[in-house]
């Protein structure tokens, strides 16, 4: 369609998951959000888009400059003008004029110069548009555009707005490129913002109130801490049983050597240091010392029999080489197949399993090569009787060993009874496995949560702002919440836009600053629903963050109700509401809602085509007048700051506030005597109707997107069972 050709199509490949939000604010009252938005578009956003790892960066709302021609319908009717006249005049006088070239070939012989002829093309300033001649009157005077319209350099759209802690703000949203590293990308974004901030106008500042990588950083720090603790504990346990620093040194050396080899293997396979690989290393630490301990204990046993360290090492390796290789192969047989799992499960466990397998293989090589060499060099013959703590420990361990041997003998003597007992334990384990709730991934406190606000269809932005202010004041009263980042005009969770929608991102304070179960994100969300119940004029839902970045916009669950017949929307809505009503009665479902509505109010403008033709009013003139006054009619473009912006028309606010305003605008009627201006309601009648908004499709069918969250104490598996019922 011509409209699509004019406006173009944008195709972007980005992760749908929001990575970080940069907030621009100003202490200068003359620098409003339109100024900040366009400053970000001109000076900041392109710098962020060029960063490696950033799939896309946008200014929320994109309040691009626009030359707004705000028409006065009454004055235009007096002068016999229509919006089409204004649009034609602007297109005539605001355009590029290629005037040509002097001396262009073919030219007369002896022509020495070639000079391009230039003229004023597209206009750039408000005054240029104000002085544009619209009509010449019979008395010789001129009607200029400023006589029938108020011209201002404003925003292309005011439907979207950012609010930070309740105050209007400009948000820069950054999205991750597929396959990019989130931590590195956020570091680049922060560094770039530090650079561009050096050239900010006076009064302008920035902050990063929303950063999804905080949880990743803290998780890695905790795993690294656990890794260090595991290494210390493993060495202490080894020393407790071997009771020799020389003997402990050998498996102690095996740990860092195996980890270094594991890092090399990860590098070769293209793995990164993340929570999964680090968790694999934590588990692997306890495994990599096993082979070395087997070697050391066997060497010490032979040394106790009188062999030298070198001979004892040789004899020990003759005995344990096979078992060490068997241990490595058994562990690899467990973990390596996990690395070949498909789907999302394989992606989750692949790096974890392969990391453990690499660690085990390298630990086996260390046990077969480095450990016996160290035994022959480090261990010394001779063991004295232990006293003190080790003496008490050895006596207790000997007593335990004796009891254990006695129990094993008893079990072997009563084999049938023992098998029956273990069979009962196995059945009990199977029963517990079935009884314990199942889920794909547990929800965690990732340091933020998301809240959506949806007012009834047809509600204005001003009503939405009132509700949003109540919610913001409540959240700001909670000490655990760092700030409120609200985006009005768009529901990021349902993927819909409208003046009755808003999305809030609620970053929490650092985990160390909010101890206690009451400050956990689930507790905060649960308490918030009690406050939401006090605001009946809006549907308000709060969601925890998704367990894995990119797997949905929120935590909880989502499903698509499909209408294969793609028939009556009212029947489909009735079925959807019945489904939601039953779901809300189930104790496993904490919250559930849908964006599907069939009662969105609409004002249907019916054009009496016969009367329009009788009065000499072109049908296209009727629709153009409606669009020019009640919408934003895109006329053409103008140039400013080296960029192209739109010229658009609309009526003054008092002429487009109620349905009755249709009678206040006029169209031109042509007859044999000339033309007259008649009220638009002469050929147009209006009536209120309703319909679905928006209409969504999934696999070609009409659908209703349903989102929800599990009630406290219930798993996602139980929720899915409830939804199936």
What report would you give on this structure?
Strands 1, 2, 9, 10, 11, 12, 13, 14 and 15 form a nine-stranded antiparallel sheet that branches. The protein is an alpha+beta fold and 725 residues long. The mean pLDDT is 86. The protein starts with a helix and ends with a helix. Among the domains are: 2-64 and 157-212, Alpha-Beta Plaits (2-Layer Sandwich), CATH 3.30.70.1320; 216-383, Multidrug efflux transporter AcrB transmembrane domain (Multidrug efflux transporter AcrB transmembrane fold); 446-555, Alpha-Beta Plaits, CATH 3.30.70.1430. The chain has 21 helices and 25 strands.
Oligomer: single chain
Give the tally of β-strands. 25
Task: Kindly provide the name of the CATH class of the domain at 216-383.
Answer: Mainly Alpha
CATH superfamily of the domain at 216-383: Multidrug efflux transporter AcrB transmembrane domain
| Low confidence ranges | none
Overall mean pLDDT: 86
Tell me about the largest β-sheet: 9 strands, antiparallel
The CATH topology of the domain at 216-383: Multidrug efflux transporter AcrB transmembrane fold
Category by helix and strand content: alpha+beta
Give the second-level CATH assignment, the architecture of the domain at 216-383: Up-down Bundle
| N-C termini distance | 46 Å
Global shape: elongated
Total of DSSP H or I helical runs spanning 4+ residues: 21
Percent helix, as a range, is: 40-55%
Beta-strand residue fraction = 15-25%
Radius of gyration: 37 Å
